[in-house]
Protein: Secreted protein
Organism: Asanoa ishikariensis
Amino acid sequence: MRRILVTVLAASALALAACGSDTDAAPAGGTSAAAGEGEAAATASACGEAVAVSKTGASGFDEGVENLLKVALEGDEAKTDAAEKEFRAVLTSWSDKLTELSGEPVAADVKAALTEGAATVKKIADPDDNTPVNAAKEELAGVADKIGAACA
C-alpha cells in the first residue's frame, strides 16, 4: 500500500513538474482578442492540470488513509509519524498546485473553484483538522467535482 502511495506521489510530482514548464510561456499578443484567447488557453491548461491532480488526489485519499491505519496498527510510532507526514505532504502538494493554478490568468469561475479547492485541501492537510475521514473524503471528492464543473 505504501508503495502505491509513494508511486502516486512520485507520479504526481513528475506530472506537476512537467506541467509547470508549460505554464511558464506567456501567451503572445496585445489585442483584446489575443488576450481572450490567452485566457482561454490558460484556462484550458489550468483545467487539465487541476482536474487530473484533483482526481488523483481524491482517489488517492482512501489509499493514504488505509496506509496510515496499517502502519498505525503495526505499533511503530516513528513509522506512523513518517506515514502521516508523507500523507499530509501529498495533500499539501495538491493544495499548492491548485493555488499556483489559481494565480494563472484563468476564467473567474475556474479561479474561484481552484481557490476554494485549495483552501479545502489545505484545511484537511492541517494536522489540527478534526474532519472525520468520511467527511474529508466527501469534501475532497467535492473539490474534484467543483473544479470539473467549472472547467466544463
Summary: Residues 56 and 102 are 18 Å apart (CA to CA). Confidence is low (pLDDT under 50) at residues 1-32.
